[in-house]
Amino acid sequence: MTGPTTGADAARATDAAAEAAAEAAPTPAAEGTTEAEAEAASAAPRVSVTEALPAADTASAPPVLSVRGLSVRFRMRGGAHVAAVTDARFDLAAGECLALVGESGCGKSVLASALLGLLPENAETAGSAVLGDGIDLLTADERTLARTVRGRRVGLVPQSPAAHLTPVRTVRSQLEETLRELTGVRRPELRKAGEAAAQRAAFPPGHLDRYPHELSGGLAQRAATALALIGDAPLLLADEPTTGLDRELVDRTVDELRRHVGDDRALLMITHDLAAAERIADRVAVMYASRIVEIADAADFFGEPGPRHPYARGLLDALPDREFTPIPGMPPELSALPGGCAFAARCERADEACGAVPALPTSGAACHHPVAAALEAPRA
Ligand SMILES: Nc1ncnc2c1ncn2[C@@H]1O[C@H](COP(=O)(O)OP(=O)(O)OP(=O)(O)O)[C@@H](O)[C@H]1O
Ligand code: NI
Fold first, then answer.
1. Nearest alpha carbon, ligand 1 atom 8
2. Which residue among 75, 108, 242, 284 is least enclosed by CB atoms within 10 Å?
């Protein structure tokens, strides 16, 4: 899903006054933010938690989220189907940030909607997506999802914060309502709690009485993040949280998100911005034509040995600051996916073996001919 771009978005983006305020007061110590927090917000504290943690699949504590065989397809008129997510499998450990990357239309947002129980009527699902406490997000009923999951166990940082916020109410009133709903705080404590919630996401208190349309893109994103954090959900899901922001704001937004991934919280960040993924992710999952085709440690993926899947390698090589070479051809239609590997038609390494769907290892590429495989597994 790509959020609608409205005239209001453009107006906000050029709202110099609000932007200047955002720049001037991101984490002002004078507003009650501790120096350490202010420091953390501005200094990109990219802590490599993967080194301290056992691999997600072998962790002794149950993963915050465990996805197995997750598929989503949409029934279309005339009996056709769109396979938006096919057989996704991954774990997400506490303290970990997994970036789900891939080109527009590959199924990232549909996967997120499945995890929130927000799929439309014409969706059919298979598989499981189990939270640490055993709730399966795919089979939970709407009452459970509404009362105990959304906001409380899964916090959503939306793709288009401006559209996600209620336009006719101030940020303060939206924070207070969510606090009342999720934490039970009542007046007279509510006002203070609202200000504390804003502060957690570095939303400047001086802007609390503004309406969403009076906020810059960066501040709207902070307001939406503040709302997502209120329920202290162990799983944060951010779908393209940096859409429409300039580079500096992208960096700051992802750094702030990273700051909220504490010891007992995990973040699934969906993005097609590979630089943002590199900046905050511990692991990367690459999606192509509805399937996760590679899962790798972010350091290995963005550094050495680099991506193993030819598509993932192509994605990186297409970046302007790398080789700037686009992948030839187009992804297949999700309503007419080929048998075997969906990337084979565009892949110079493809041969007969690629007529069968390659398995996805716990870490590595779903590919019959992964890049650099020869280096790691020399034949005798
Ligand atoms: N309700 C629906 N009915 C039919 N097809 C749908 C529906 N919702 C999404 N799709 C299709 O599912 C596919 C995956 O869409 P999705 O929004 O997950 O892509 P994405 O990877 O998030 O892309 P983007 O980067 O543009 O946000 C697309 O082909 C889309 O057209
Ligand atoms: Ni999307």
1. 110
2. 75
